Amino acid sequence: MINFDTYSFAGKRAIVRVDFNVPLDKAFNVTDDNRIRAALPTIKKILSDGGSAILMSHLGRPKDGPEEKFSLKHILPTLSKHLGVEVKFAPDCIGAEAVQLSSALKPGEVLLLENLRFYKEEEKGDEGFAQKLANLADVYVNDAFGTAHRAHASTTIIAKFFPQNKMFGYLIQSELNGLEKVLHKPQKPYTAVLGGAKVSTKITIIENLMDKVDNLIIGGGMMFTFIKAQGGKIGSSMVEDDKLDMALDIMAKAKQKGVNILLPVDTVIADSFSNEANSKVVRVDDIPEGWLGLDIAQDSVEQFSKVIENSKTILWNGPMGVFEMPKFAEGTKQVAKAMARATANGAFSLVGGGDSVAAINSLGLADEVSYVSTGGGALLEYLENGDLPGIKAVRE
Ligand code: AMP
């Protein structure tokens, strides 16, 4: 495996898969440039070595060829400003003009290719299309973790055209370093905190973690499937009735493997799914009919926090309650704070998967945990399988 950091890009043209899938307003201004800023260290390293960079990305979900609102040209001003370089643009990601523009690149120059998904071949993982992209450059750098779970042309297939010259950029490298600490070399005690809506979407992760963790904390909507499976009264709370056996099975397996499963003991219930609902705290297995549990309550928070604070490795995916409503965000907030305290005491904490990242950001605690994954679906798949097509393609 080539180490991106020590590799010299002098005189080389590097084609870099970045994630510039950023939100745009109606006038096509970038409204959140986090993903662009996150890619800068990788691009700048290539340029400062004396190389040139050809950047490729998708933007949105174009259905049938080019669409103005999905053109990557809209991000040029933001990208040029951050890089301090006038970025050139290829209005078609393949074809004669892209070839001409990329071969004319001088050291320190940057070319942005038009949206890859204007070609169906991108998502199909078409080899011919991947080869046309590959022909534009000497070296391939993948730095888009969020799409590494897709075997698309630019994220996976292209790697085969660079058998000796493929590598990860800084972003993917730091994701992999973080994941290594929770999947392969966790310091013990190791606690996984899982929440979110459904147990069915997390089952493979739970099974994979069962061999690694000491404690498994379960909150969020999915806790009620466990509570009901054990005979508890859950009122009108979210539940997956066809997964009750699965929940019991998980509990049995945990017992067998010596994993300590922690379920909430109390819950904040509401008489409707609304921030304005009437609410009160009850035991988690004694919810009156017509009421629904929307957060974990104080006794649960205390139990969970104690375990989290005594851990050396913590993985968190999925909110403890309906954190989007302030009235039911407290459980998620307290768990995040316990993670922050554990981190301050030397634990390694990783937060990942769409909603948990949104939660930790909205609580302003992102800087107080060790690592916040940008992965979303890619992170969840990595936790399930321990690998991703885009990662494997570069490692092989
Ligand atoms: P997930 O994408 O599976 O991580 O689920 C995240 C969603 O689960 C968030 O939108 C939360 O509002 C929701 N959620 C968490 N706790 C509950 C609950 N007790 N009842 C209903 N939805 C919940």
How would you characterize the overall build of this protein?
The chain has 396 residues and is an alpha/beta fold. The protein folds into two domains: 13-168, 3-Layer(aba) Sandwich (Rossmann fold); 176-385, Phosphoglycerate kinase, N-terminal domain (Rossmann fold, 3-Layer(aba) Sandwich), CATH 3.40.50.1260. The chain is 35% helix and 17% strand. The protein has 14 helices and 17 strands. The protein has helices at 34-48, 76-83, 96-103, 120-124, 127-134, 170-183, 203-210, 223-229, 244-257, 298-309, 330-344, 354-362, 377-385, 389-395; strands at 13-17, 52-56, 88-90, 110-113, 139-142, 166-168, 190-194, 215-218, 233-234, 260-262, 266-270, 279-283, 286-287, 292-296, 313-317, 348-351, 371-372. The strands form four sheets. A six-stranded parallel β-sheet has the order 3-4-2-1-5-6, sandwiched between helices. It has a six-stranded parallel β-sheet with strand order 10-8-7-15-16-17, sandwiched between helices. Helix 12 links the parallel strand 16 and strand 17. Helix 7 crosses helix 13 (377-385) and helix 10 packs parallel to helix 11. It starts with 12 loop residues before the first strand and ends with a helix. The protein binds adenosine monophosphate. The site of adenosine monophosphate (AMP) has 18 residues, from strand 14 and helix 12. The site of adenosine monophosphate has 18 residues, from strand 14 and helix 12.
